[in-house]
Write a structure and sequence with these properties.
This protein is mostly helical. Helix 1 packs antiparallel against helix 2 and helix 2 packs across helix 3. The longest helix is centred in the middle third of the chain and has 13 residues. The mean pLDDT is about 90.
C-alpha cells in the first residue's frame, strides 16, 4: 500500500536536493522509494510529474511510438 507524501516532505526533498544531496540520500532521509525521491527532485527539475511520465518521454525520444513499444523491444533483445 502506498502512502501519501506530505507537502512538508516534498519541500524538504527539494531543499536537500538543491543543497547537493543525491537522490538516494534524499530517499533515505525522508523515507520514500528512490523513484518517489526522483520525482520530488530530478523529475521536478525537469518538469515531469512522475517517473513513469519521464520513462514515456525517453521512449519517444529514442524513436519509439510509446513506452509499450519500447518495453516490447527490450523484451525481444
Amino acid at each position: 500500500m502506498s502512502r501519501i507524501i506530505s507537502d512538508e516532505q516534498r519541500e524538504r526533498a527539494w531543499k536537500m536536493y538543491q543543497e547537493d544531496k543525491t537522490i538516494s540520500q534524499v530517499a533515505k532521509i525522508i523515507k520514500v522509494s528512490y523513484t518517489s525521491a526522483w520525482s520530488l527532485t530530478e523529475g521536478r527539475k525537469k518538469g515531469f510529474k512522475n517517473y513513469s511520465e519521464y520513462n514515456k518521454h525517453l521512449a519517444v525520444k529514442r524513436g519509439f511510438k510509446n513506452y509499450a513499444e519500447y518495453l516490447e523491444d527490450l523484451a525481444i533483445k
